[in-house]
């Protein structure tokens, strides 16, 4: 009788562990296409970043620096992670650099109006879509 009880407890623990692992992996998923809300040209709201921007397109990301230099890369993977108790969604765009090395571009996205993007290392710096700018 005691062994059956121990076996049931062990089985319940295994089921709970599997359910926990499933719920963790379900919150972070690879997605096949660039979400529409991310597509566009993004500029920082801080004047110190004037002249810099990045553009997310279907399958590509382009960065423009203060000198006007533009670099475009092919997106090879997009990951989306819904954060618990937060309105922000974490995205990671993986792209190939000029040496065909996979680079990661992680950011947080908030779906409000046209949307906002921020980075983990600069949580107070907000990037917004610019509707009147073209590369």
Task: Provide an overview of this structure.
The protein has about 140 residues and is of the alpha+beta class. It has 2 domains: about 1-30; about 30-130, Beta Barrel (Lipocalin), CATH 2.40.128. It has 1 helix and 9 strands. The protein has one helix spanning about 1-25, and strands at about 30, 40-45, 55, 60-65, 70-80, 90-95, 100-110, 115-120, 120-130. Strands 2-3-4-5-6-7-8-9 form an 8-stranded antiparallel beta barrel. A hairpin with an 8-residue loop joins strand 2 (about 40-45) and strand 3 (about 55). The chain is globular, with a radius of gyration of 21 Å. The N and C termini lie far apart (about 75 Å). Mean pLDDT is about 80; it is low at about 15-25.
Features:
2 domains; 135 residues; 8-stranded antiparallel barrel
Q: What is the string of SSEs from the N terminus onward?
A: HEEEEEEEEE
Unreliably modeled segments? 14-27
- The amount of helix comes to 10-25%
Q: How many strands? A: 9
Q: How many domains, as an integer?
A: 2
What is the gyration radius calculated from CA atoms?
21 Å
The helix count comes to: 1
Shape: globular
Structural class: alpha+beta
Strand adjacency order, main sheet: 2-3-4-5-6-7-8-9
How would a textbook summarize the main sheet? Answer: 8 strands, antiparallel, barrel
Q: In CATH, what is the class of the largest domain?
A: Mainly Beta
Reconstruct the topology from this structure.
Blueprint: H1 2-26, E1 28-31, E2 40-44, E3 53-57, E4 60-64, E5 70-82, E6 89-96, E7 102-110, E8 116-119, E9 122-129
Antiparallel strand pairs: 1-5, 2-3, 2-9, 3-4, 4-5, 5-6, 6-7, 7-8, 8-9
């Amino acid at each position: 009788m005691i062994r059956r009880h121990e076996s049931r407890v062990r089985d319940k623990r295994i089921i709970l562990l599997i359910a926990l692992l499933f719920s963790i992996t379900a919150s972070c998923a690879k997605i096949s296409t660039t979400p529409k809300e991310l597509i566009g040209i993004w500029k920082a709201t801080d004047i110190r970043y004037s002249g810099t921007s990045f553009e997310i397109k279907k399958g590509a990301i382009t960065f423009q620096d203060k000198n006007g230099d533009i670099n475009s890369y092919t997106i090879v993977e997009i990951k989306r992670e819904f954060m618990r108790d937060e309105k922000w969604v974490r995205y990671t765009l993986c792209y190939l650099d000029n040496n065909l090395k996979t680079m990661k571009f992680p950011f947080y996205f908030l779906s409000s109006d046209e949307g906002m993007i921020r980075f983990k290392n600069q949580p107070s710096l907000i990037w917004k879509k610019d509707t009147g700018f073209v590369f």
